[in-house]
């Protein structure tokens, strides 16, 4: 079977697959995305070689998913993750209550995080959850961390350069 006859995509129906070559770290995007509303758009790339039966194109298979780009708020949280864990682990319930109140996490997520037995584990899961929700929620989380009552409860947050 000819790989060029394979189809990909199901959002608007099958799309014929095309052969493209990217050189020197280039990326080729040949799909058209329209009529989509999204807070988070993941543009990860999965690379696989296809053995077409022709000797000149038979290469070992590569299965590598490239990380998606994070926005500035998510990058800020990630770059300070260890410091945040250290600071917020002093009193995880207070930060949980504040992020729930600001609708950064749902009531169910709050309950699940509150039930974790280790303080550090609670904060790690909270940070990972916020990051997984995307840039909008990361920005809201950073705003919560800058509130006066939060800074009073977690004075070491003042040492983090935002």
TrEMBL record:
CDD domains: CARD. InterPro entries: CARD, DEATH-like_dom_sf. The lineage of its organism: Eukaryota, Metazoa, Chordata, Craniata, Vertebrata. GO terms for biological process: regulation of apoptotic process. Pfam families: CARD. Residues 69-147 form the CARD domain. This is Caspase recruitment domain containing protein 6.
